């Protein structure tokens, strides 16, 4: 279409829209839309009178070509048909004379007709109200999405995937549990159960055996000294309605009121009950002074493995990820406590406590820097000891400047002997990260390496250049960022023990240097071992401690058998002379002769020096 014609058609269309707005109609049904019947605007127009920009189109003005169009077809509104038919489509202040005047038909109220702009191949949609068309379109959309007749917008249903208290499932029937519990209570005198009788009730509830003290305390046993069926049934109903897995139930019974995490003190009743009732710890009944030491050791080991956030509070997700609940259930079936190497082994406690007892000279359960420096024959780096006592790895409110408590020593020994454990890696990374920027730089590695080289020179060993050590460590760890080693790099490395020993422990560093590089290659014919470095260390140290104690007992037992009768008589004589005896003549006892002929223990005539 030429530009002049296009401009004329646009002006005509704007005039139509202006007239439509004045008349209150959506469409004039004029030739512009292809309709055969024209509707004039509601204006008083006289015959053969100028009407300005308003257009009066009658059937007489419609070309014969457009009249022959099908009623279901739409003529393109490009203006060419009008021009070809001889119509004046340039309404800019031109006179448009209505040749034949029809009686104007006022529009029906609310009858708003739509102007359809569609292609020539599209059939004319019957004239409807705008609201009806919107409802029709909405119904079509609802049918498309399978929501026919629904007034709600389309939405995708996403099933719940996070269950803070465990996913509800087909658990044990509460009514059956209450019936078994009621049957157990009926056998008790007065319907009251005491702490010693909680084993049967705990099993009737379907809980592990060593949850019994937690169940007893949660049902009010601490206050009254006993529990009843009514108090326990209330607890069980609330427990099974809100908690749907073992971790959430354990958390609900063990932690204090209005708390959602476990503190150190929350585990003390549980571990104390294990000490008092487990068959593998019956020998501890005669040594109550060691109960608190064992309880502290076990809980410290639990926090070392479970509390991955270092917050001092064990959360529900941490409890689910750890193996503590499985280990606690295993105690019920294992009579030998030493076979449960995670957390509860008495042999492991014996090793830890003996190591601490050797360092704690005043036995106040606290050691200082000098005491810790004597660990493992002064093998630790002195700068490392300074970092440990600076509070870099200290947790809890019992921190004392310049002092290390027994709980902190448990963490230290576990981290020292098993540097592949995730908590151990974090422990030593905190010590080595001097500026706390989350990465170990070359400066920080050189800071600890210098101390190691000074100790090697003292022992007469040739120094190793720092550049060679750094190259070896970088090749071993393979950090992602050049020039620094992050915590993620060390956790991805399989030889973190060698990395930390190079800077912290001289004895272990020299041991790694002198070891056959192919010694770690696994024999394809041997079975893989699941023991950790800590389990191997504890087993070796326990055997050494038991052997030393056995040798000492053997020496004491055979001490008197090493002397002949003459020697015994001579020792007796020397002891009496020391006490002031000078009147007993010397005599010889022949073999077979008893020295009890005379009462040598009669000191009535002897001056003993009192």
Automatic annotation (TrEMBL):
The lineage of its organism: Eukaryota, Metazoa, Spiralia, Lophotrochozoa, Mollusca. Keywords: Calcium, Metal-binding. The B regulatory subunit might modulate substrate selectivity and catalytic activity, and might also direct the localization of the catalytic enzyme to a particular subcellular compartment. Residues 584-610 are annotated as: Disordered. One of its GO terms (cellular component) is protein phosphatase type 2A complex. It comes from Biomphalaria glabrata (Bloodfluke planorb). GO terms for molecular function: calcium ion binding; protein phosphatase regulator activity. Gene3D superfamilies: 1.10.238.220, 1.10.238.230, EF-hand (1.10.238.10). Residues 584-594 have a biased composition (Polar residues). This is Serine/threonine-protein phosphatase 2A regulatory subunit B'' subunit beta-like isoform X3. Pfam families: EF-hand_13, EF-hand_7, P2R3B_EF-hand.
């Amino acid at each position: 279409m030429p530009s002049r014609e296009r401009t004329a058609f646009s002006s005509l269309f704007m005039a139509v829209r202006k007239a439509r707005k004045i008349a209150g109609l959506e469409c004039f049904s004029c030739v512009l839309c292809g309709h055969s019947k024209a509707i004039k605007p509601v204006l008083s127009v006289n015959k053969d009178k100028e009407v300005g920009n308003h257009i009066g189109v009658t059937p007489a003005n419609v070309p014969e070509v457009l009249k022959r169009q099908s009623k279901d077809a739409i003529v393109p509104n490009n203006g060419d048909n009008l021009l070809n038919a001889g119509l004046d489509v340039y309404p800019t202040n031109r006179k448009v004379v209505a040749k034949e005047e029809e009686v104007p038909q006022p529009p029906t109220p609310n009858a708003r007709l739509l102007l359809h702009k569609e292609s020539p191949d599209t059939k004319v949609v019957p004239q409807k109200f705008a609201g009806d068309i919107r409802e029709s379109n909405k119904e079509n959309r609802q049918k498309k999405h399978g929501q026919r007749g629904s007034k709600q917008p389309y939405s995708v249903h996403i099933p719940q995937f996070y269950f803070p208290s465990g996913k509800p499932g087909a658990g044990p029937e509460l009514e059956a549990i209450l019936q078994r519990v009621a049957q157990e209570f009926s056998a008790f005198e007065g319907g009251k159960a005491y702490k010693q009788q909680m084993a049967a009730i705990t099993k009737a509830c379907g809980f592990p055996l060593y949850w019994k003290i937690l169940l007893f305390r949660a049902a009010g046993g601490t206050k009254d000294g006993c529990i009843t069926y009514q108090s326990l049934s209330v607890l069980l109903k609330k427990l099974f309605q809100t908690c749907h897995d073992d971790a959430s139930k354990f958390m609900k019974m063990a932690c204090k009121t209005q708390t959602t995490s476990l503190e150190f003190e929350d585990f003390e009743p549980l571990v104390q009950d294990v000490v008092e009732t487990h068959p593998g710890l019956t020998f501890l009944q005669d040594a109550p002074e060691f109960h608190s030491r064992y309880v502290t050791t076990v809980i410290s080991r639990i926090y070392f493995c479970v509390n991955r956030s270092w917050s001092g509070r064990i959360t529900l997700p941490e409890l689910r990820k750890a193996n503590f609940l499985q280990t606690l259930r295993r105690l019920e079936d294992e009579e030998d406590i030493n076979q449960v190497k995670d957390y509860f082994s008495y042999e492991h406690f014996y090793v830890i406590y003996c190591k601490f007892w050797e360092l704690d000279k005043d036995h106040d359960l606290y050691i200082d820097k000098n005491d810790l420096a004597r660990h493992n024959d002064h093998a630790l780096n002195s700068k490392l000891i300074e970092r440990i006592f600076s509070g870099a790895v200290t947790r809890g409110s019992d921190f004392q400047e310049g002092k290390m408590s027994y709980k902190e020593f448990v963490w230290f020994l576990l981290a020292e002997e098993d540097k592949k454990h995730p908590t151990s890696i974090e422990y030593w990374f905190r010590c080595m990260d001097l500026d706390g920027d989350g990465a170990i730089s070359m400066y920080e590695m050189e800071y600890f390496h210098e101390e190691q080289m000074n100790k090697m020179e003292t022992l007469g060993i040739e120094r190793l250049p720092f550049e060679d050590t750094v190259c070896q460590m970088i090749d071993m760890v393979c950090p992602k960022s050049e020039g620094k080693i992050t915590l993620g790099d060390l956790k991805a490395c399989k030889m973190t023990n060698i990395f930390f020993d190079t800077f912290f422990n001289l004895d272990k560093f020299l041991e790694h240097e002198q070891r056959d590089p192919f010694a770690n290659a696994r024999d394809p014919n041997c079975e893989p071992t699941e023991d950790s470095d800590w389990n191997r260390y504890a087993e070796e140290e326990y055997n050494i401690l038991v052997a030393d104690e056995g040798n000492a007992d053997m020496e004491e037992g055979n001490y008197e058998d090493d002397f002949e009768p003459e020697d015994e008589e001579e020792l007796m004589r020397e002891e009496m002379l020391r006490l002031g005896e000078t009147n007993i003549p010397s005599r010889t006892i022949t073999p077979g002769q008893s020295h009890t002929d005379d009462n040598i223990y009669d000191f009535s005539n002897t001056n003993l020096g009192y």
